[in-house]
Amino acid sequence: MKRLKTAIDAVVEEIAKTDARGTPSQAVPALAGADTGQFGIAVHTCEGETVSGAAADTPFTIQSISKVFSLTLALEAHGDDVWTRVGREPSGDPFNSIVDLERHEGIPRNPFINAGALVVIDMLLGKNAGKASHDSVRAFLEARIGADAIGIDDDVANEEQSSGFVNRALANLAKSFDNLDNEVETVMKAYVEQCALTLSCEGLARAGAYLMSDRADQHSDSVAEARRARRINALMLTCGQYDGSGEFAYRVGLPAKSGVGGGILAIVPNEAAIAVWSPGLDDNGNSLLGTRALELLAEKMDWSVFGSIERR
Amino acid sequence: MKRLKTAIDAVVEEIAKTDARGTPSQAVPALAGADTGQFGIAVHTCEGETVSGAAADTPFTIQSISKVFSLTLALEAHGDDVWTRVGREPSGDPFNSIVDLERHEGIPRNPFINAGALVVIDMLLGKNAGKASHDSVRAFLEARIGADAIGIDDDVANEEQSSGFVNRALANLAKSFDNLDNEVETVMKAYVEQCALTLSCEGLARAGAYLMSDRADQHSDSVAEARRARRINALMLTCGQYDGSGEFAYRVGLPAKSGVGGGILAIVPNEAAIAVWSPGLDDNGNSLLGTRALELLAEKMDWSVFGSIERR
Amino acid sequence: MKRLKTAIDAVVEEIAKTDARGTPSQAVPALAGADTGQFGIAVHTCEGETVSGAAADTPFTIQSISKVFSLTLALEAHGDDVWTRVGREPSGDPFNSIVDLERHEGIPRNPFINAGALVVIDMLLGKNAGKASHDSVRAFLEARIGADAIGIDDDVANEEQSSGFVNRALANLAKSFDNLDNEVETVMKAYVEQCALTLSCEGLARAGAYLMSDRADQHSDSVAEARRARRINALMLTCGQYDGSGEFAYRVGLPAKSGVGGGILAIVPNEAAIAVWSPGLDDNGNSLLGTRALELLAEKMDWSVFGSIERR
Amino acid sequence: MKRLKTAIDAVVEEIAKTDARGTPSQAVPALAGADTGQFGIAVHTCEGETVSGAAADTPFTIQSISKVFSLTLALEAHGDDVWTRVGREPSGDPFNSIVDLERHEGIPRNPFINAGALVVIDMLLGKNAGKASHDSVRAFLEARIGADAIGIDDDVANEEQSSGFVNRALANLAKSFDNLDNEVETVMKAYVEQCALTLSCEGLARAGAYLMSDRADQHSDSVAEARRARRINALMLTCGQYDGSGEFAYRVGLPAKSGVGGGILAIVPNEAAIAVWSPGLDDNGNSLLGTRALELLAEKMDWSVFGSIERR
Predict the structure, then answer these.
(1) What is the CB-side half-sphere exposure of residue D34 using CA atoms within 13 A?
(2) Same domain for B102 and B144?
(3) Amino acid D216: pLDDT
(4) Would you place residue A162 in the very low, low, confident or very high pLDDT band (cuts 50, 70, 90)?
């Protein structure tokens, strides 16, 4: 624990000295003016402790990180049938590309690009919603970390409702291929609501703890859940950072999912769940300092799914 | 060790009962008539032992698995400069697609699609070859497992020399973008030679042992090499099975590289290197039974980079 | 005139004997069951006469042929500014492809693919509608051939309103690139209404007469209008039959625009406007028998914009 | 004739005053430094006279204009069988794009993009060469305008031989799909040789006269040839200016084929063949001033396949 605290402090210090801070998302007006000086980090360990640094309790919109939670619910409700409606391959295209969706006849390449997330959410709505433990990402998160730890950014929610034209294009195209059961606007509403949820780094790290697939974790007491978590980690590693997933795997070596609000949730299987946040993004739409912080922390802790360096 | 032997025996038994066996590569005439009943498996552990099953000592052409070894040499010689000439992202297209190469102006998406492998090999030839420890994949492999364990399939070598039109198209296109220093035919020759090398499963598992990034391994005594291995694992996981990499990560959960000859090299970081072989391929060009065998073995051994299920 | 009548009679006879009749559009349910035995033809000459054959007075929905008329109005209202919002190049993709729209950042390739038609209609609506002579395709057509010659197919109109998901996808994507001033649903409504207009071959030939760019034509008394007609003909020739435009130009040699209802309007510059109709479509979505009839008529009349064969 | 001479003189004068002159092809080193002040124009009429202006007797490499002549020979030798190996549709992509070739499984979109021209030339070589009247473009041209009017630019020929990597990529890809009978280098050699032929505007206008499909023309005394000419015109109109074909049809309204050397051959069916030349190119690789000159001349002569404006 002491080693972790020391490592986090060193990361915070190094990040504070970094000049390049990226650019906030210009696609979401409520985020466009965000202060790129902001940074937070929190680690929830398999021992159940949370160690944090900098602005770890400042809430931010989780945006696409919510796709991990809706996928979890869809897998719980529909099992591997999920994969009849959405693929499991990296897309090689930006997060909002419509090309792949047309080329693959309405089957999004994976559940983390926008088209895939819309189809996943569609599986959780209406009469085909199945039997997930919770009926929304918000309810799922409340069960894990308590309602008090969760907010909603109304500015983001309202704005996206009216301006999400690309997402409406994707949803309509999926529907034209019969891959959307509910009305476009119904799906859009649920999508925007889960994207606009706000958590702090501390909340997010705790919320993502079930993905450690550690059966000691109180929320993960079944083999089925651990197995599911492992598979979600696989998807996060191959597809979680959009068109920067390969580079992220190379540099950081951990499964992770980013959001356009500047947050990233990363998992050290069997060991820890990490949340970082800084609103400035890189060219692929992932938090620039968040990625850098994860790289530094993973280095200092010798964390990588691709092998330990330290002699054991 | 006993658990591993029991697991391998069970896998061999289950594979023997499997009816669907895939189709040998029709692109390589010398492979087209291969007996899809053939299967071999070998595991080299971090303790330095090799446990094997079925036709583990039958040699087969390693084909694209050789791309892992040439990449290792290029990273040794050129370090991260490799990434100025080839990307690190999954392609979302088949292994021999020329689309991406044009779209990204001569920079192949990753070192494991054919275009990327040609550029990597180009980095090992001629006056810009750098300072790799060996001047060819064959020499690299001989240093690891001895010349006796390595052969070459002349039929494959000669055939591909004359018929590799797609690869010549890729090489010429890369050259048109100034991303090939040597003559197209020089690069083609080296490419074909390393693809036509033959190893058995036992030889391949030993040859790939350095990718465990385990410093106890006799061939991997430096931190630098362990660090490099870790990064190669990341590339194998995100890009190693062509357009089936995402599904492979989901089902098997290990970094791996397949070859059109039916072999697959998979790595359990810090624990083991696995080689499987069966010539029947699936739609993405990966060994059907080889993939299935890896899935079974990983399940039985609780091996996955995305987390252990067994309570520790 | 006698030669024309003889030619039309011969075409009608030959078409009646043709076995291959294509398939009605399955995308529009109200058309899906259409009798592919139906066929009509009418030619309006520069002398002002109309010669027709078979079911020349049966009304059918003009569908995409309406795009010619809305483009005419947009050019009248906005002149060459139209081309700041839509291109003039053949697309090399099907009529409803969304790929090009994304690749060209919201600028449709031409005004005859669906995305282009939606943008053109947008230019005729709202406060930026400009100063076209008529405020809708219907009004434009009424001024030319009288209200009695024009109907609307309510089944088609209502159906498409609710099921045009691809078009909504295109409109939303255009809007995401700021290339749609009006609400998506407002544009969709106008689009569907003009597509559902019904004309007979006789009506359509007279309605298209202004495209002969013949100043003797009563509707075409200005040089400006003749010049505009000439340019619309150019677009019809290069882009009028979707991804079959090249082959149509090769076989028929006349500017033309097809509709999914089975109609085609073709122009013999300075000589005649031709309308044909038969509901069975070919693979590119153009009327199979309509195209064949035009090929036969053009052959018999020695009509081609690419040169006369007969010694003059 | 007097009207034509007056029109040409006016065009020459206007072009001389034009400031924007485009950029010579940088892809062909021997052309890269060309003086963009150069301009020539010649018109060969159906009466058999040639009227010219400016540098109408300066030779230049015809480059891709040669594709019209090789296509003529292939159609003569193989008839419509040509279209089993190459398409007739505009490509919507640049002239040297390899994407379409892969997407359409080795069938180039049309005979005027590079891939298509290579396949057409392949049809004229070797044991499947068929029965064309001449065995090379050079022989075909010599029969029309005499050997004295034709040269070859050795710099261009030698240079392209060694540097045509994109074309080699295209040829290899076509061969991988079994759409090239001869060796890649054999086809490349013939391709480069016909591209490096030099003609003056006067020579080119006379050489292209057969495309007027005028049976009075001495070289075009058969209906079959006139019919073929008409179809080549159709291809020139839809595909002759690469990805600028639609705009060219809109602005100029004549079938035409451009070459990267700055020449353009345009046809006024039944009336005239026009050659213009100026080495500065626009963004699509077509002569900037050449296109402008054709637009001016067509305007002054009321020439357009899409209709005459002048009251007849």
Answers:
(1) 30
(2) yes
(3) 58
(4) low
